[in-house]
Amino acid sequence: MRHRPYEEPLRDVRPHPADEAGAHWSQPPEPAEVDPTVLSALLHRHGWQRRGGAPGRYGRWTPPGPGGGGTSLLVPESRAFPDSDDLLGEALVALSRSGTPSAREVLLSLAVPSDEIRWWRDVPTGPVGAAPWTLEEQLRTAARQTLLAGALATRACAGYYGARHRRSAAAMLEHVLVGSAAGGRSLTAFVPVSEGRPLAVRLHQALCAAREAIDYQRATGGMDAFDGAVETGVSRELTEALVTLVRGTEGARIAVEWAPAAGVPEDCAASAEPVEFSPGDLPVLREAGVRFLRDEPSVPVRITGAVERMRRSGPRGEGAVRLRVIAGAEVPHVRVLLDEEAYRIAGHAHLVGLPVRVHGRLESRGGFRRLTGASGVAPVQVDEAERDRLMKFLQENLDFFEEACSGDDCD
């Protein structure tokens, strides 16, 4: 089995809901569900300009850009007046019919209270402001890696995760909605507060800590600050994401903005400037990534796993086994080298549809996919449903097992 290199693009997070065919997001929220203060805050965040209005009653808002002068919204400042619901309804309908991208984003934030994570890249432009099509893919790749690093940091603190915690971190990204990349220069992700606020908070803390550690290294030459930054969520995965974001640009920025409807998280600033990174930071980020990879220790574990593949070079002696991890470690599979007796036990357990339990150390080399120092291999009883599933897997994949396998190694 070949493992995907870290640099390979991850599976896309969910697209912007307005881009999905038949999406129900095309309908504006009901006026009764909208807080006028929240709507005004979102309009301001997304570049709309307040241009007068009756003080204390409503504000007149126009969209960003040169073409916004012909459109305006009347947004009440509160529900204290009889016409407040009517004005809100008219404003929401106007937003739903507007061709301005920011109008769609405002409606989304109203429908699903979300913290917003924004990326900007300062990239050279081509003729008439055009940009190479690859820029958008580079930005999306960097954004996905950044979000994954933030999600991993909510599971545990580590300088390097490798394959650990990836399933639970990827599941956390299922709820994240992503807008369109504007010419490969900017992108916004909407992280629903109900499921993803810990991700947004952790990522915000990690970005600030990474910036401080870079500044410390560039001022003193020491990398010590990165060691302490691990506790706030900085990792090799984050430094690699930042390298991807900054590489090929004149600079990049990331900002986390809190959902107005949910308020500011504890111990976080109400408003913060975007965290900036420059090409001059790349050598430090790469050095930090190497340091994290080198220094992350192996982990003692007791794994319960189902044997999925076995291979050895002859009829006797030690052999390699791949286990699908059921419990004991936050990785999907591990490869373990077993002596002759342990290999025989694993084979017999597999043939009768039982997983095995094994002690060892999960090695950071190779991404925590290899167990070394294996001992105490023994079959484990499971319920009938799990045993039936294991037996079905065996019957469907007989060509993967035992010494007759002539394909790739079990890793």
From TrEMBL:
Residues 1-33, 50-69 are annotated as: Disordered. Residues 1-22 have a biased composition (Basic and acidic residues). This is Uncharacterized protein. The lineage of its organism: Bacteria, Bacillati, Actinomycetota, Actinomycetes, Kitasatosporales.
